[in-house]
Structure formats: C-alpha cells, structure tokens
Amino acid sequence: MLWNTLLLALRAIRRNLLRSFLTTLGIVIGVSAVITLVTVGNGATRVVQDQIASMGSNLVVVRPGQRMGPGRDSAGAPPFKVADAEAIQSQITGIEAVAPAATKGATVVYMAQNWSTTITGSTSAYFHTGNWQLAAGRTFNETEERAGKAVCVIGETVRRELFGSRNPVGSELRIKQFSCEVVGLLSSKGQSAMGSDQDDTIIMPLRTVQRRLTGTQDVNSLRVSVKDGLMIERAKAQITALMRERRKITGNELDNFNVMDTKQIADTLTGTTRVLTALLGAVAAVSLLVGGIGIMNIMLVSVTERTREIGTRLAIGALEREVLWQFLIEAVVLAALGGLIGIGLAVVVSAGLAKAMQVPFLFNPDINALSFLFSAAIGVIFGYFPARKAARLNPIEALRHE
Amino acid sequence: MTAAPGPADEALIEVAGVTKVYGSGPAAFPALAGVDFAVAEGDFVAVMGPSGSGKSTVMNILGCLDVPTEGAYVFRGVHVEQLTRNQRALLRRHYLGFVFQGFNLLARTSAIENVELPLLYRGASAAARHAAARTALEAVGLKGWETHTPAELSGGQQQRVAIARAIVTDPTLLLADEPTGNLDTRTSREIMELLCALNRDKGITVLMVTHEPEMAGYAKGIIHFVDGRVASDTRREGRS
To answer: N or C: which end of chain A has fewer CB atoms below 10 A?
Structure first.
C-alpha cells in the first residue's frame, strides 16, 4: 500500500516535471547554500589550524619584554641565557623539549646569488618544537652543536633564491666572513597564521650564531614544547614562576618577559572562523525554510488545480488517508529530491570555491546527511497542510470543480 | 471493510423514502422529497428529468458519494446510509464504477496508467494491474492505444478509456453521469452501444443520467424525476 502510494506520487511528479523542478528549486538552493558555506567554512578553519600547527603544536614561547606582538618593547629587559632553557627542562615536569634561540638578520651568498634572511641559532630541539620536517639531508648533531661548527639547515625559500631547483646539501654558503656547509633542507611550511614566510630561514647551532654573528651569549627566545595540550596552562604558570625567580622579580613587580602559547592563538583564530561558519550556515538555513514555504505554496496551488483529479480518485474508492499520504509523499519526495540535487550542487560548488579560495575541500558527511534529513522534514511539515486540504475535499464538489 | 453483500436474488438497489435537504432553517432546500424505487441486478436504467429535479442528487446517493437526509439506501442488503465515509469509499472501490460527463482522466498520463488507477488503490501487483488494464482497454475497443495520453485521443476515445477505468475492477454497478453529454451523436451512439454490450455480456448493472431521449432509449427502463420525486418509471408501467 505504501509502495503503491509512492508510485502514485512519483507518477504525479513526472506528470508535472517542470513545475516539480521549480518547486524543488528553493530546497536545492537552500540545501546547497548550507552545505557549501559549512564546507568552505570548515576548509578555512582547517587552513588556520594547519598554519598554527605548523608553528609547532603545544608550543610555548618565552621572550624578554612585557608586550607581545609586533613593536615589542624589550629595551631594558635582560635577555635569556642558555641556562634558563636548561632550568626549564630540568625543573618543570611535562616538558618535551626546550630550544633556546638567538636570531640575527644576515645576507647569505652562494656563487653569484645573495639573499637576505633571518638566521636562527638553536639546538636540535628547535626542529621538534617548531614542528619542522626535513626534505633532504640531516639536522646538526650534538658534537657540531658543542663545537659550534659552521653547518646549517636552510628553508625552502632560501633554497629557491640561492640554488634554484638544485639540491643544496653539501654546498658551502658564505655568511659574512665565514663559510657554512648546508647539511639539510627543511620541508616547506608556507605562510604563518600571521602572514610571514616561515620558509625564509636558516638554522644553525646556537653556539655558531652566538660566536660568529651576535657576539654575545644572549638568547632571544625560549621555545618550549609541552607534552600534553591540557597541561599547557600549568606549564605556563610554572615557567612564569621559575623565570620570575631566576630574574629576581618579587612581589608586585611586573614580569619583564612574556609567555605565550600557540593554543591561545589557535583558539582565537579558529574560534572566529567557526563563529562565521555557524552564522553563514544559519543564514542559509533560513533560505531552506523559505524553500519549504515555496513547496507549501506550490502544493496548495496543485491541490486546487487538481481538485477534479482528487474528486475522481475519491469517487473510484481512494480513502481519505490514501489521498493525504499521496500528497504528503509527493511533497516529501519533492523536498528530498531537492535535497539530493542540492547536495550534488553543493559538492560541485564547494569544491570549486575551495579551489578558488585555496582552502582544502573537506566533504562533511554529517552536514550533508543533516541537510538531507532537514529537507525531507520540511517536506513533511509544509506538505501536511495542503495534503490534509486535499484529503478532506468533498468528492461531489471536487468532481464539479471547474 | 464493508459488510458482506446479501444474496443476489434480492434487488441490487433499494431506495426507500429517501429525502435530501440542503442547508437548514428557512434557507433549507429539499432536493429529494421522498423517493422509492429498486433496481434489479443486470438492469440498465436511464434517469431523466429537468435540471433541479433531483436526478444528480439521487445519483450521488446511489454512488455512495452522499448520504440521504432521511430514508434508506440498501445496496445488496447493506444500509449505505449507516456507513462511515471510509466504509463508503471501500464500497465504491469494490462494487462501483463511475463514468463522468467530462471523462475526468488524469492529464499527461497514458491510457493504460489511467485504467490502472483503481487497481492501484486495490493494492494489485504490477503484473496483475497491467494485464487487467490491457483486457479492459481491449474490451472498449482501444487495443493499441495503451500509451496514448488523453490529449492524443478523441472525445469518444477518452470516454472509452474512462469506461475501461470503470470496468477494470469488474464492478457490480456502473454509474454513468451524462456519459454522452460532451460527445457528438455518432460517437454517443457508439458509447451507448458499448454500455449496452457491457450490460448484456458482463452482466453489469448500469444506471445512467441523461437528458437525451435517444440515449435513454438504449436503456431497458427510464425513471423520470420531477421536483425531487419519481414522476414516472417505464419499467413499472411496462410490467403493469
């Protein structure tokens, strides 16, 4: 009986193909808008997450000076020493790695090419805290670190500018007055969440940088990798307390250093894109509702237009509930078809948009299933009233209807 | 479901003291003012009368589409006036066939699908529906026209499809409301001959409303309605 009713509904839809298509158009647009916005929004969130993850997961950065961000005023604040890094490593639990880093801008030369970049001196822990992967070669070892040997690992941008597409491993770079052997090449990380080129970098042992470039024992920042994301707040508090103690800050005196973590930045940035995605999705959901009202509108017109047909059906023995079911199923099938077409359209549009906006295309089965069920539910809700109207027609009057 | 039909030797239809009043109070309009008649199984009766005489009202009651205000309508021993709306729908589904003046076929739907329609409500299988619809179309002389839509058929052919739809369920009673009202004389005669053949060969009882004396002449008897009453009944006169 249900199958026969479905057949009746499908035949009625087929009889009015153009009108059926126009009826579903509202649902098609609503469903595809919801899915497209959510999919592209999720892609954008993923981009931000990836950029932050590329900075290093669970990374806490300790810098001298009170303010963070660009234009940081570190004047007067004493720099850190390697001993501070060792203290954090040995006195605080839950720390995976600590990398003291000293940075210095310099021009590097290879053959006839030269390039201005930032040189970071650190330990091999830096590759771990910064979440760096090697594309070729190796990192420097402990012996080279201790001896302050002139070896370096270069970023993708430096490779491109100096070596083109050649393999740089084993080549000698000239930096100021010394030459330095390239032992490794870093995998590209692309832009940071702040928009700077993370691949425009050269990394060499801390002692080498201190001796040959900065000429001091100072460390610009401490990069601390915390074992578990949940412990990051505790680790930050402990680092702050330890640094206050080591820098002899007491009572109400303000810190002359700052501690920030990537999770904070990540939460803020992904939070923003998530809220935007939800907001746009909600706006699109309203259009889905409007699509549902469109279905009700057309179904009511259809009931009026097909009054004689309904009268005929009732006369030849259709029960009230069979007519109700037929029109209800018609509405649900129309809405569900609209949902399916909408999903297909959304996949095409969001894949295209994702490509144009350079965000990954993340097919989300949940939002697709939800939109489909929602559109079918709209068919039930907005189809019920017209269907009931059809079922309650008086067959005699319906047959006489012009 | 409907109650089991009574024995066949009784009259198929018995109408006793039926009145029908539309509206209420001072605006009340009596469409039927006490009607009594009976129709035996296998009969072919034409119902005639001027407009407003109550012939349409009586057809609606006989077709179980409406119930009398007072009086009894007994179909094969079942008191239709006591049935619910759904029970009357099931009675129509299983025992009645309808032919309308305006054909009332589903537009943009092939002849065979139109004929299958009542079987869909009966829950017949696809194969059974197809076979029965083909047989019915053949019986009305439309073999080979199965896939044509109403727009591709002439008026006479459309009425044949409608008759096929009415007889596909092997009804006991066929109710035809001005079946030739929209057709020319030649086609009207063909349709009347088809109805006569169905009555004669399949034993289907036919009740037909018409205002054309020529078409009424095909029937075995004529009931005349005037002012909501039976004015004359040729079957009674013939018998007496």
So the answer is: C
> Is any Cβ of chain B less than 8 angstroms from the Cβ of A400?
no
In percent, the amount of chain B with pLDDT more than 70 equals: 94
pLDDT digits (tens, 9 = 90+) for A171-224: 999 988 889 999 999 998 877 766 678 889 999 999 999 998 888 888 988 998
Across the A:B interface, residue pairs with CB atoms under 8 Å apart total: 65
* pLDDT at residue number B8: 44
Asked if the C-beta of A392 comes within 8 angstroms of chain B's C-beta atoms, the answer is no
Inter-chain CB proximity B165 and A15 less than 8 Å: no
- Distance (Å) from the C-alpha of residue B156 to the closest C-alpha of chain A? 19
Q: Which of A308, A312, A329 to mutate to test the interface with B (most CBs of B within 10 A)?
A: A312
Q: Is A19 on the interface with B (CB under 8 A)?
A: no
> B8 at the A interface (CB within 8 A)?
no
Contact: B118, A317; criterion CB under 8 Å? yes
In chain A, what are the domain boundaries?
Answer: 2-51+267-400, 78-255
In angstroms, the CA A321 to CA A36 distance is 38
pLDDT of residue B100: 92
Q: Chain A residues with CB inside 8 Å of B92's CB?
A: 315-317
- Judged against a pLDDT cut of 60, whether residue A71 lies above it is answered with no
Do residues A337 and A295 make contact, with C-beta atoms less than 8 angstroms apart? no
Please tell me the distance in Å from B224's CA to the nearest CA on chain A. 22
User: Residue A29: CB partners within 8 Å, gap ≥ 6?
Assistant: A287, A291, A342
Q: What is the mean pLDDT of chain A?
A: 86
Distance CA A232, CA A94 (A): 9
Residues of B in contact with A317 (CB under 8 A): 89-90, 92-94, 96, 118, 121-122
Q: Tell me the shortest Cα–Cα distance from B238 to chain A, in angstroms.
A: 33
Percent of chain A with pLDDT over 70: 95
ipTM of predicted assembly, 2 dp: 0.91
B-chain residues near A395 (CB < 8 A):
65
What strands lie across the sheet with B229-233, from one edge to the other?
Answer: B96-99, B173-177, B205-209, B44-48, B221-226, B229-233
**Option in A8, A11, A396 nearest B66 (CB):** A396
A190-194, long-range: CB < 8 A, 24+ apart: A190/A51, A190/A54, A191/A51, A192/A51, A192/A54, A192/A55, A193/A48, A193/A51, A193/A52, A193/A55, A193/A265, A193/A269
pLDDT at A156 over 60: yes
Judging contacts by C-beta atoms under 8 Å, the chain B residues touching residue A319 are 86, 89-90, 121
CB count within 10 Å of CB A217 equals 15
- Cα–Cα nearest to B173, from B202, B209, B205, B136: B205
Using CA coordinates, name the residue in chain A closest to B171. A316
Q: How many residues does chain B have?
A: 240
Mean predicted lDDT score pLDDT of chain B: 90
Query: Above 80 in pLDDT, residue A368?
Result: yes
Q: What is the pLDDT of residue B236?
A: 67
Percentage with pLDDT > 90 across chain B: 80
Tell which CATH classification among 3.40.50.300, 2.70.150.10, 3.30.1360.120, 3.30.420.300 matches the domain B41-64+86-239: 3.40.50.300
Give A29-68 pLDDT, tens digit per residue.
999 998 999 898 888 888 887 777 776 667 888 888 875 4
Q: Where are the strands (E) in A8-146, listed by range? A: 59-64, 95-110, 113-122, 134-137
